[in-house]
Amino acid sequence: MTGVRHEDRLQKYFDGELSAEEREAMRLELEASGDLAAKLRGLEHLQKLVREHATAELEVEAPSNDEMWAAIQGKIDQGIADDEPMFPQPVRPEQTRPALQVIPGGKPGDKSATDKRVEEKRRPRTMVWLGVAGTIAAAAAALLLFVLPNINPPGIDAPPGGSEVEEVDFGYSTGAIFSVEGQEGARYAVVWISDEKPLIDEAEGTP
Amino acid sequence: VSALRTALVVVVFAVGSMLAVTAHAQRERGPVPAEVLIVLATTNGERNIDRRLADVPALRQPPFNTYRSLTLLDSPEIELRIGRAHEVPLPNGRRIRIVLREITSDGRYRFQVSINRPGEQDYLPELSVVASPGDPFFIAGQSFRDGTLVIGFRLGPRSRT
User: Fold this and answer.
1) What ipTM describes this predicted complex?
2) Burial of B146 by CB count in 10 Å (0-12 exposed, 13-18 middle, 19+ buried)?
């Protein structure tokens, strides 16, 4: 028996394609020949490698439609959140995943570097508004301090001008109230009061 | 940083409001300048009108124009504050007491005047007057020397006389 035939029979033995008599004869030869037994172990090792590789290839394949619908229905029935993975097992080995940039969430108080950069961009605008607000406040103060005291409020005419007596108590003196004309037709009040004490009637006690 | 910025804005507006309130209060409570003209009017002698009375044309109107001489004896300038009395002595020994009561909504001055000897009420017990800024008001009739005293009052900035 040549080497090629031995290997051919060994392959068929390994694949289970020999008859019962041929398998018994091959088993006896394997017991007798260490080289032949070593070749058989080589075939077994090769088969193991091929199976492992085939399993990895199978995992890469996308699930069938039936599997996908079954998984979706399962999530609906179990109330699983959408962000949980539908298929827990990794779709790809970890090493082959593309590098992803982590974008921080929007929790209040969390200041990421991105937020700080945005804040730094906004700062000049805030300072401008601050300056505008200060300028408006200063202008309002200046308006009230210097301008408004010199003008009359809207709807109120300028003072009519002149002077007038509202009330007078001459006491025991005699007097009169009249007015003189000034500029622009204004009337100025004059109180003329004598400083001579009138004679008092001692009997009646009245002037 | 945000709190500091907010505080800064609040401070700016607070200072502005404070200045505005201060300006308003200053206008309401600030002293009002006033001038008292103490004039001796006589009918004797040459006709002589004191040059310093040139800006009081009302004294050239009747009955003041019947006097041949008008001499300005004194013209004290005072500052009146609302509710605070101010006294001005007269050459005849009496004293003028002036109290600014209020500044009316149309910008006029309401004030009270009394003229008496110290501790007495021998002449003018009470007089209440309203006058526009710069416009005069007169009290006349007291005998002094060989004439009559004419006392003019002007409150506030002078605009016309």
Assistant:
1) 0.81
2) exposed
pLDDT of residue B36: 97
Q: What is the dihedral of CA B85, B90, B94, B96, to 10 degrees?
A: -20
Structure tokens belonging to residue A182: 């000034």
Q: Write out the H or E segment, with its range, that includes residue A7.
A: helix A3-15
DSSP A104-116: ----TT---HHHH
Q: Say which residues have a Cβ less than 8 Å from residue A43's Cβ, sequence separation at least 6.
A: A10, A11, A14
The number of residues in chain B equals 161
SS3 (DSSP) at B158: coil
Instruction: Give the whole-angstrom CA distance, residue A192 versus residue B66.
Output: 15
State the best of B12, B28, B143 to mutate against chain A, taking most chain A CBs within 10 Å.
B12
Report how far residue A9's alpha carbon sits from residue A151's, in angstroms, rounded to the nearest whole number: 122
Locate A166 and state its tokens. 């509202």
* Residue whose tokens read 């600030």: B30
Any B CB within 8 A of A174 CB: no
Is B130 close to A163, i.e. CB distance below 8 A? yes
Structure token pair of residue A147? 């301008």
Overall pTM > 0.95: no
